[in-house]
Structures
1.
Amino acid sequence: MSKDNQVLEELTSKEYEHGWTTNFETDSAPKGLNEDIIRFISSKKNEPEWLLEWRLKAYRQWTKMKEPKWPNVTYPEINYQDVIYYSAPKQSAKAKKLEDVDPELIKTFEKLGISLTEQKRLTGVAVDAVIDSVSVATTFKETLGELGIIFCSFSEAVQKHPDLIKKYMGSVVPVNDNYFAALNSAVFTDGSFCYIPKGVRCPMELSTYFRINAANTGQFERTLIVADEGSYVSYLEGCTAPQRDENQLHAAVVEIYAMKDATVKYSTVQNWYPGDKEGKGGIYNFVTKRGLCFGDNSKISWTQVETGSAITWKYPSCVLKGDNSSGEFYSVAVTNNYQQADTGTKMIHIGRNTKSRIVSKGISAGHSQNSYRGQVHIMKRATGARNFSQCDSLLMGDKCGAHTFPYIDVENPSAKIEHEATTSKIGEDQIFYCLQRGIDEESAVALIVNGYAKEVLNQLPMEFAVEAQKLLALTLEGSVG
Amino acid sequence: MSVLTTDKNITTQIASFIKQKVNVDADPIRKEALEDFERLGIPHAKHEEYKYTPIARVLEKNFSFTPSPASGPIGSIDQFFIKGIDADTIVFIDGVFSKDHSKISSSDVKVLNLKEAIDSKNEIALQHFGKYADFRNDSLSAWNRAAWTEGVFIHVADKVSVAKPVIIYHITNATDGEVTAFNRNLFVVGKSAQVTIIEKYDSTGKANHFSNFVTEVVVNENAGFEHYSIQNDQNNRFQRNLTQIYQKNSSRVNTYTFTLNGKFYRNNLNLILDGEGIESHMYGLYLLNGDTLADNHTVVDHMKPNSFSNELYKGILDDSSKGVFNGKIYVRPQAQKTNAYQNNRNVLLTDTASINTKPQLEIWADDVKCSHGCTTGQIDEEALFYLQSRGINKDTARAMMLYAFAGDVVDHVPNEKMKEYIDALISDRLHKDF
């Protein structure tokens, strides 16, 4: 019995795994936000004039906008002047080869289980590693280059492929889309850019790994994926941050542009530092993600496993413009302790015979609040549109809350829309059954939750799925009993 | 949480209209309500609760809110009565109680003019009046609270089961200009008592008419309450209703809302389940054509453990009609073992009809079973073809299918006579207008 207790104790006191920090020299901008800071960032990155103009325009827009108050989350007001908008690990020059990268940085990523040294990699996953504000290394560039695939950091793309950036940046998420998108557009520092040429099926998973390291900084990165006609790409995104008492801001923008017959699959395992048991610290994750199915028969699929962040505010969406295009959204959002999540999706059906599918699984434990907010909008022209949505919530304990806010707007009679949602708790009979078979309560909960989330986890690439399952169990530890 | 965006013009216009009609300064309750109304203002389209229902624009466009000449005598009103049903009737014409037409024969139920009941210090009326409907955050309720002059107070004593339903006819005579009415009702159902109240809205005349009604209902322990709302009016009827029902332990409430004809409806139906072992059912059906807009906003608030609520709303939308549905279910932290279900189903018949639905669950308790579902679709072509291949012409086949779709709701009406009446109404409308 005492041993059992000990195990439980150990498990419940287990905290955020990636809470450590690395010490390396950084180069940062002074705190605060004004036009000079934006000029500073722009000149640091040696950006062309048009991009600076673009940033300044976004900044001016932003100053006119108000922070959204509609999400079902509460947090103290953010002082935007108290954030460092640019912080980069000091490097003599952008490393050409991996060997030139600061060993401290490579170690950081190895500690996270991400190898930047290509030879050691068994499975083919190309990684773009982003620390604080800048991308530090991108792997497998040459292999991809042979197929004509461009996969590099955003700043590199600005220098090398300005035409593509000019054409597609802001085409899916316009500068003035929302408060945080405007902020990001003004101060974004780096991110990933990916272009898949016509008819190419990307042979490996592309991945960006985000790590916030420095204190008091905000991370503002932009990801832009352009999939040309008939191409295919699967993209992964992971994130972690050190454990700190103050809240840090993360406001990213992800844009996906899919042309005719293209397929893009975007998976996220979000594990920013969620704050401690009392709800102190943690990342504010205010992200705008949107995909545009521009061409006919194109497809965009979002899969997300949200376990971290003190506050999540995120709605990966699909604009289904091309005829027969389809959008998918699979999500597991877990909140524990004092975490708050307001997440969901938007499916905007514009083209004919467009299809969308939403599967959202929310799990709330501790004192957390978990909301699903989604919109399915069938426009007049979207004849034959089809949508299926399912959003389930699982509650563990009586101090947490689960909320659903689905909006369904239909303007075309031929559309078929189904929406269903349920809220329940883990059945006592299910737990009892496991106990009876010698599975302790903690593992039983993990087992049941994994079963509950299976439909979504199945959508993840294999490596991620394993990580996600572990994460689920870890986040929920100590939430029963 | 919500950002209030108001339309200043229409708000000031209405406020001065209220001041002309009633002496606001003489009554602190009205004065306070008017201040609330002016502070909140008529919600603009940016307001979350009125996102799809542009009430400010609609009122501005269609109403002058100036005192209009008194309507001339109304002709026969028998045509509006529900035939073949033995009931006590209360008639309001242009929002004013008409003694001549009303007929209360049953002694089980106490019916009073609400204003007289309050003026004469009726204990029960004073105890409950104005306690339930929110006017601090709802400008239209504040408007009603400041401006109401007429209304009915119905009290059913403990352990009394009222055999005959009470029918309230709201008849508007809009022959001589725009008519506005702001009635307020209060129904109190005593412990272990039972009553059925039917409200029906009708009008004559070509002018626009708008009503903003607030009804508060208190259903005490073990009591039963059935409420029908039949909105089958002319296409110059604009209406906003708030029905706020407060339920105590083991009470049962069934509500039926039929929206068939009219121009603009906004029905707010709020059920507060402040007790254990409560059972509540809400049924709604809207058959819309032309450019009618019908907006049903419902709230079920589970405050205590072990209660059950169920909601079924169905809609058929033709021409360029617009349907809006918002169903909220709240389950408070202590309301364990709650079962709450909600369902909204719609059929769109044309390209120009639209539906905006938002079923919303907010749950803070863990041991609950809650679900909601909503669907939007069209008539199944194959089923239609099947009927046609059996020699039924297309229009009849279509009406048959829609009738079956609507039948789900009508089937739940317990009173046989009412069921027949509503059934005939719907069947007639489906064959004629759809």
2.
Amino acid sequence: MKLRVKFSKHGVLRFIGHLDVMRYFQKAIRRAGIDIAYTTGFSPHQVMSFAAPLGLGLESNGEYMDIEVNSLTSSPDFINALNAQMVDGIRILEARLLPDNAKNAMASVAAARYTVAFRKGYEPVFLTEAVVDDFFGQSEIIVTKQTKKGETTFDMKPFLFACAFDDAQNTLTLIVDASSAGNIKPSLAVKAIYDRNHAEFNDYALLITREETYLNAGTQEVPRLEPLGFIGSDFG
Amino acid sequence: MRTLALSDDILLKVEKPARYIGNEVNSVMKDKDHVDIRFAMCFPDVYEIGMSHLGIQILYDMFNRYEDTWCERVYSPWPDLDSVMRERNIPLFALESQEPIKTFDFLGITIQYEMCYTNILQILDLSKIPFHACDRDWDCPIVIGGGPCAYNPEPIADFFDIFYIGEGETQYRPLLDLYKACKKEGCSRTEFLIRAAQLPGLYVPQFYEVTYREDNTIASFTPTVSGIPGTITKELVTDITDTTYPEKPVVPFIKCTQDRVVLEIQRGCIRGCRFCQAGQLYRPVRERDADSLKEYAIKMLDNTGYEEISLSSLSSSDYSRLEELVNFLIESCNEKKVNISLPSLRIDSFSLDVMEKVQDVKKSSLTFAPEAGSQRLRNVINKGLTEEVILEGATLAFAGGWNRVKLYFMLGLPTETDEDIRGIAELSDKIAMAYYDTVPKEKRNGRVQIVASTSFFVPKPFTPFQWAPQCTKEQFLEKAYTTKRAIMEQLNQKSIKYNWHEADASVMEGILARGDRRLCEPILRAYQKGCIFDAWGEYYRHDVWTETFAECGIDTSFYTTRQRGLDEIFPWDFIDCGVTKAFLKSEWKNALDERVTKNCKEQCNACGAARFGCGICTVPRITNL
């Protein structure tokens, strides 16, 4: 049976990298006594996969991992058992049973929604609702990003699904492509806004929270973003 | 949520920020307003090394069981953070509370190897604690050192208020009670230290005076305060089954050197290898009861979620109920999908059988530590491993599918000749030969892989070799070349790979290991010139050390290559580790006579440890007087 587990990651957990979070969960699952399935072979390991790696320094309310279990009682039992093993900064939010034919978490990821706040003393004075609307209203947004092979320049617009500024909260909300094929880092989009307004960009100014990770419940042509747990169901 | 000592911009800039944030599973948080004593426990090396150390885990657990004490951890900031902390004047902090070390009552430093001495100064410096104990007042924590290097604390004597000689489980409670009483009475720091110096096993260096002869050896070593002992006897736990052991060890987020549950099955060793300091310091051998170990194993696995468990001891094969314990672990670990790692096991049919059950034979390799290449030299060092036993073990293993062998040797052992060194190559060749004789061509999976590694021998205090001259760097390197050439001459040389260690650091280790108080000054100067992380090849600066010794007018050969007289007073002679100097002397003589001494299970050799009245010493055996 495949489960999709949603969790949040805050506070000092921002400084724990993706691979270490995986190692952390492998141990937590053992401590919680969850009847997880193991691969066969000489060095069996837990059947577990994560949706989308979260960069160092980012917080999240919408992380997902898939695990396979041999038996289970109920969603609340599972959540409570695992939460009893969590350290400060990481909470299990939901656990949903997946249909047998579900694609794994990583392959399912289509998009992610981020909230970008600004560190004290680094608030951009130029940012307003109008400035951001103007930015998002462009027909193409040419950006340059660093890759392993060097720099590439491309049009970000097709990968940027929503972009809005909240004047009252002084926060940006972004929905960007987070699939393995077209993943956009939120800071790249924010940098493009700064660049368009000739403002000096500093990565450190941003306090980024991933709010949700989405799959595409619609079609290629008419996408419909739903949280990654959408295809699962509560159990027990 | 806790406030971190380091700001986000620093944590995002340094390598592995998880080293500095605490919050790990099973780390202990307490309300600082509800404890009397704040204890910072330090391993003066990087987090991943320090977190792998069992001793600290035991003491961390013990202290935190005390309701009036909160024990936290601190490790050496890696050079990247070190420079940021200096630049921005950030004081060193403990992982749990993230509060400055200077505000603690105690700073306990475990001293596991000589090459960490400058890191101790880094810890003091970043904590803003004066380097010299005599310059500290009640604004500073009591700095207390322990661990194997505390058995010759003299090269770092100036930097510590107290050294704790021996096993930590016994005297900390009385020390903490004394501290509380002294604080209540409003005692001076000096008064507290005088009273601490009267507790068993505690050494307060500032109350002892050393005088030297013209030849630079020690003339006298005497207490300067009345009522404190001239000899410090090591502390030890007589019944180690009955002592505390961490059921819930801290589980780090990042991968550490020791990434598993560690079960200490016994302390001490019956073997008496003459180069080995641990084998003498931790006598007598004391076993933990197998039934309680089984319970610990299950609890610790359940409480940590580790995927692997390892047995810890100096020589696991000598544990009397090993087979029963290992079979229990195999059974319960199989259920839990947990691996078992079994270091320091003698290769025989039992261990091969176990390894076959718990490890992937194709991936694992066999390890032998003959330490010396010839039987003659193995007799000198009292390493009771014969060529016959090695070849038998290897043949068994080859028949069982293994085809990789690791061999560990030392170069520069007392009385070593080129003939002994060639023995390393010849033994390696014979093992290769055994493979080709045992495994028929069609069953071979390529060539047998033999890796022979040599380290350079460093004589240590409290061993029979404490009188032995150490080799010079040139001699060391010559010996490594001789080994290399001898291996090249072997028939199966293509199956043998040879590794040797760097020689400079071994010479340095030798200076510090048998050093005296006069080394405090060059150690501090070398630190002030930027030496830290000397145990890390990439940071070790031999040129700076050499220059510093010269500036301080110290002839380092006095500590290394000099032939020591049998009646010389050593800097560590004021410590009584149980084993007597007379016994070590007779062992030194036995070594030169190439005479083997039986192990503690075969007969009692009257080493002196029997006076502790515990462990193997209470088992009736023949006594050799």
